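for the recovery benchmark. tokens below, seq after
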């Protein structure tokens, strides 16, 4: 790119010739005529769109590049290149993650991160997003995955890390973008992004509507639409108010996959679906309102307050397939029957959260401080009614989709849960000269849960007070090289997921300790290499004695691992994102002897991802890549194992930079290019096949 210098920096005769004029005799110093000078240009490569180093780290006082923690960012540009239509698809660009299916009637997004469940560790703009729904990235600017315990920032959970979603918010310019996609084997998607700016006010509207059949899966279908308006007052001033609202509705035929058989996914057609017509459905309504006011007193002091109201309604009637009766390896597959286990419930989750923060930048002597101090208050409510229903068994090989449900549906439980949380926290990253930095932080949480089963007339309560900390040392021995060592804690209370049972209600929270040694190297100014060694240990995991049925905190689970990645621009036309993570997850101690020494469920030893694009002449771009997930077990006894797999994707796009078609984008994507059969979501009860070969064709226009 070539940039003309602004007028105040352009050379003039008066500046360039001062010394010469001063050397001439006085009589010769007559006013000179203006002499035209050549334009000075600065040529430089634009930074890679895959890099978001300067972006603020969620709930921390520093930028992502300055944070002593592994943070993977999936930017908007990468999501678009790979035609991502769900958060789950976007997270395929991040290693150390494994997807989990709808165990126990769960819906939406569920995954493990560095070997530990992250079911409750989704956030939007740093505030918890606890609903069970399919997160669509149409309203997102980026997704940040913060790895390692993060309780000093986010409170309960976050054993393996958190997933934060950064919103598309109003900007100080006018623009718009429209996109239309067509899917194979069937489906369409339309999105829009329009921003209008006038004075100190800007508004932005993101919309989405789609319907999609899943390649290789009979009867499975996803439909959803969403709108996400936002407005900012005081844009560009010291006081800003931003209000963002998300409304998303889904109507799906949920996929609970195929049953396990003799420790492996049942050897049936990938398309086999065990639900029933007119019964299986999933209707999800998500409403999230976020309001943030910010006042900048000076460069040293910024105050901000963020309020969140969220409501998630869920109407689920799904079928979980289970092998019926007793079968042996000699039993013919044609003789095996599948029980259709009903996962039937209505649920509403509501949350109120208020976060007040002070961001401080100051000096004490030779020390430079970047600090954040905050207070967080929240209330979460859950109302769930579960139903029981009887459904006819069906053939393992040839399931009957049009079977009629037997008997009546009866209410099995009515659950009301209220949880309250209050926390104070402080984090300070201190710069000691050019080579050293220290991060210290602490947090105190009060978390209480009130659980009522109104049908059984039972009530349970939990009440926890927990402290968390983090400390880190940063050492920068050479320009472009940064190393760090960090340690921290997190906690998992019994009522973490707004549920309690008599066996765990009185137990203290599980405690987790982490250690991480990491480094980054800015190889060329455009390409960065990163690496980290880490250990995560759940020191007092819940474990049940099979003889007595008593649950205690006598367990221990540990994950040792490392990861490496490369991110950025190799040449002017060549972008690269690549990563690899190794996880050695082990159950070290348990009251169940058969679990000791086994691998932690849903923790693949090896995960890898690569995506690369190359800009060709005539405004063409080629892209391609793959991700690999090693085999993983679905249970603590390691009796059910899903095989590993590699999925290949490819893309080609044409986006003219000049001429009559400037702003147009034509793109074609192929997902699972080789039509590989693989198992995407793993649970203890069933395993869900991934989609077959899928083509997406996109027409987009920017203005």
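predicted aa per position
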């Amino acid at each position: 790119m070539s940039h003309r210098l602004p007028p105040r920096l352009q050379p003039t005769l008066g500046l360039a010739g001062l010394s010469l004029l001063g050397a001439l005799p006085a009589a010769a110093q007559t006013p000179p005529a203006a002499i035209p000078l050549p334009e000075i240009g600065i040529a430089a490569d634009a930074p890679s769109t895959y890099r978001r180093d300067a972006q603020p780290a969620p709930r921390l006082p520093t930028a992502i590049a300055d944070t002593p923690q592994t943070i993977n960012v999936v930017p908007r540009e990468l999501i678009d290149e790979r035609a991502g239509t769900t958060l789950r698809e976007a997270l395929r660009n991040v290693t150390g993650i494994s997807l989990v299916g709808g165990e126990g009637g769960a819906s939406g997004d569920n995954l493990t991160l560095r070997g530990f469940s992250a079911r409750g560790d989704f956030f939007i703009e740093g505030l918890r997003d606890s609903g069970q729904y399919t997160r669509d990235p149409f309203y997102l600017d980026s997704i940040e995955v913060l790895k390692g315990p993060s309780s000093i920032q986010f409170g309960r959970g976050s054993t393996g890390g958190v997933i934060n979603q950064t919103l598309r918010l109003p900007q100080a310019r006018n623009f718009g973008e429209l996109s239309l996609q067509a899917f194979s084997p069937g489906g369409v998607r339309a999105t829009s992004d329009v921003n209008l700016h006038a004075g100190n006010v800007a508004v932005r509207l993101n919309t989405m509507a789609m319907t999609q059949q899943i390649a290789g899966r009979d009867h499975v279908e996803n439909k959803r639409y969403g709108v996400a308006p936002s407005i900012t007052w005081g844009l560009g001033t010291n006081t800003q108010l931003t209000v963002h609202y998300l409304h998303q509705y889904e109507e799906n035929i949920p996929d609970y996959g195929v049953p396990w058989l003799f420790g492996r996914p049942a050897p049936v057609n990938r398309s086999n679906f065990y639900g029933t017509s007119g019964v299986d459905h999933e209707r999800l309504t998500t409403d999230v309102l976020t309001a943030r006011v910010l006042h900048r007193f000076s460069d040293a002091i910024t105050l901000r307050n963020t309020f969140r109201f969220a409501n998630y309604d869920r109407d689920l009637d799904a079928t979980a397939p289970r092998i019926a009766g007793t079968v042996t390896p000699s039993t013919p597959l044609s003789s095996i029957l599948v029980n259709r286990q009903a996962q039937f419930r209505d649920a509403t989750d509501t949350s109120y959260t208020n976060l007040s923060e002070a961001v401080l930048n100051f000096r004490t002597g030779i020390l430079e401080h970047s600090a954040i101090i905050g207070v967080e208050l929240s209330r979460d409510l859950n109302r769930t009614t579960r139903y029981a229903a009887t459904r006819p068994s069906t053939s393992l090989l040839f399931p009957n989709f049009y079977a009629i449900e037997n008997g009546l549906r009866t209410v099995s439980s009515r659950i009301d849960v209220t949880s309250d949380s209050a926390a104070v926290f402080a984090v300070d990253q201190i710069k000691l000269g050019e080579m050293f930095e220290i991060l210290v932080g602490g947090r105190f949480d009060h978390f209480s849960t009130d659980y009522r089963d109104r049908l059984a007339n039972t009530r349970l309560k939990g009440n926890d007070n927990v402290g968390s900390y983090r400390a880190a040392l940063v050492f920068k021995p050479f320009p472009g090289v940064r190393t760090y060592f960090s340690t921290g804690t997190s906690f998992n209370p019994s009522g973490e997921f707004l549920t309690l049972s008599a066996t765990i209600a009185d137990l203290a929270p599980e405690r987790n300790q982490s250690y991480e040694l990491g480094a980054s190297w800015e190889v060329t100014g455009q390409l960065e290499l990163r690496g980290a060694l880490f250990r995560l240990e759940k020191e007092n995991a819940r474990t049940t004695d099979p003889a007595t049925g008593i649950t205690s905190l006598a367990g221990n689970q540990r994950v040792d691992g490392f990861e490496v990645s490369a991110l950025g621009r190799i040449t002017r036309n060549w972008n690269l994102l690549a990563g690899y993570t190794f996880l050695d997850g082990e159950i070290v101690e348990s009251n169940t002897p058969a679990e000791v020494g086994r691998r932690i469920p849903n923790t693949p030893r090896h995960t890898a991802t690569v995506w690369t694009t190359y800009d060709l002449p005539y405004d063409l771009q080629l892209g391609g890549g793959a991700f690999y997930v090693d085999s993983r077990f679905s249970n603590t006894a390691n009796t059910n194992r899903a095989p590993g797999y590699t999925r290949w994707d490819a893309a080609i796009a044409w986006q003219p930079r000049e001429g009559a078609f400037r702003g147009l984008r034509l793109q074609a994507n192929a997902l699972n290019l080789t039509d590989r059969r693989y198992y995407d979501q793993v649970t203890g009860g069933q395993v869900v096949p991934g989609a077959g070969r899928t083509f997406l064709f996109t027409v987009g226009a920017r203005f």
